[in-house]
Amino acid sequence: xxxxxxSSAGTPIIEVTGLTKAFGRAPAKRVALRGVDxxxxxxxxxxxxxxxxxxxxxxLHLLAGLDTADxxxxxxxxxxxxxxxxxxxxxxxxxxxxxxxxxxxxVPHLTVQANVELGxxxxxxxxxxxxxxxQELLDLLGLSDVAxxxxxxxxxxxxxxxxxxRAAATRPDVLLADEPTGALDxxxxxxxxxxLRTENAGGRTVVMVTHDYAVAATAxxxxxxxxxxxxxxxxxxxxxxxxxxxxxxxxxxxxxTAAAGSSSGDDAEGPEPAGTGTGDxxxxxxxxx
Length: 289
Fold this sequence. Notes:
Order of helices and strands: EEEHEEHEHHHEHEHEE
Radius of gyration: 18 Å
Number of strands: 10
CATH architecture: 3-Layer(aba) Sandwich
Strand content: 15-25%
CATH topology: Rossmann fold
């Protein structure tokens, strides 16, 4: 396993400046993001928390290039992706990003193992390496016994773990996860957090949206979002830029409503990107494969 890079070193792998996004038109217009600035260092693990409708999922979609902002900048590994065509944004996802969606977005006619292998096959990974990596992840997530099953036969929690395995399979530079433990019990949540920790320790940057402060506290940094704005940032106990020890995470800052205990998504933010789950948007960067 390669060492995890310092979270303070080098050019940010994600840099967001002045990001705004609204849905609909007046008088029904809903503003999801109001001038968000965010910088994420290579190898950093960032949790984004806040109440439903605060803009978390919208921000994640913009970081992935699944949608475009009304104004502002999104840079991924130094490349301005907000100005790219949909096709070029899909290529950027294919090469750099692993995505975990609340809706899972598994391919219904492929088995669990084939879903996990899909991104690696598109990337041209050899058959033996593809199978070995898929089996490794299925073992880690307790899914080996359903490797030949179709997604429709699985529970929601199992489908969520398959989606996480698929996102991690290609060892992307960045893992973007929208409520990766939202459908899981406490044991499965621990398994998923362990996998994310392993991937992060191996050099992957992780940005996850969560309502669960216990899960958020496993990250290097917690960003609090409310009403489409970043209201606070904290580091969990034991983490500082210099390696020193700080106090226990005290919870959200002024004006940030605690969201623990809620597993609902950000359904008040606005619609999913057009075509989510239908193939109209190239969610996984598969191109014409």
